[in-house]
Amino acid sequence: MEATQVPKEQEFEEERRISSGAAPPGAPLLDNKDLKKVVQKTAATFAPRASVASKNPAVPGTVLYTVFEVQGYASMLLGGALSFNLIFPSNEPDIWRLMGMWSIWMFTIPSLRARDCSKNEKEALNYLFLLIPLLNVVIPFFWKSFAIVWSADTIAFFGMYAWKMRWLQKVEME
Questions:
Q1: C-alpha distances out from residue 116 to 55, 59, 68, 132, Å
Q2: C-alpha of 83 from chain center
Q3: Which among 131, 103, 114, 107 has a CA at the least distance from the CA of 66?
Q4: Mean pLDDT of 12-40
Q5: Which of 16, 19, 64, 171 lies 20 to 30 angstroms, CA to CA, from 82?
Q6: Which of 24-28, 48-52, 140-144 shows the highest mean pLDDT?
Q7: Burial level of 49, CB count in 10 A (0-12/13-18/19+)?
Q8: CA–CA distance, 78 with 106 (Å, rounded to integer)
Q9: Is the CB of residue 43 less than 8 Å from the CB of residue 130?
Q10: Which pLDDT belongs to residue 167?
């Protein structure tokens, strides 16, 4: 059997790719595990945990847990009302509509992250913490509407929860 010769150019390119840490051709840039690490690290950088090792007092069934949950969803609804110009109506873009557009990122996600929640929910909130600012910056280039941005954030919120919490998976019958 004769071994196939690899052209020098291909060999050099492969060495360069390996030494630079680049993925081989056709491989995904980030696999799911790497993406999860990046998201978790970034979210922890910008929304860190307590500096002292202590158990989260906002566990399910406590008043604090309920306060954070109500605060999170109420801020989402209030943000929608502001974005849709239902509260403090104005014909001009103003701070109230801007606050409504950003309410999910500023209030809902931090409130829900503050609770002691499942690993999947925390992961969904970490992804949303990074995704929503992207949506809020990119969408206005195409549509100049606070209501559309808030609606996209809400769709992303429930879509991420559906994906990470596996709401849409079929339940297996035993």
A1: 9, 5, 10, 22
A2: 20
A3: 114
A4: 58
A5: 64
A6: 140-144
A7: exposed
A8: 12
A9: yes
A10: 82
Query: What's the gap between Cα 65 and its chain centre?
Result: 21
Mean predicted confidence (pLDDT) in 149-171: 90
d(CA 23, CA 17): 7
Q: Which residues contact 149 (CB under 8 A, 6 or more apart)?
A: 83, 101, 135, 136, 139, 140, 143
Which of these, 163, 101, 88, 111, lies nearest to 132 by C-alpha position? 101
Q: What's the CA gap between 126 and 146, in Å, rounded?
A: 23
> In degrees to the nearest 10, what's the CA dihedral of 173, 125, 116, 40?
110
What does each C-alpha distance from 145 to 1, 62, 86, 89, 131 come to in angstroms?
67, 39, 14, 14, 18
3-state helix, strand, coil in the chain (%, to 5): 65, 0, 35
150 burial (CB, 10 Å; 0-12 / 13-18 / 19+) is buried
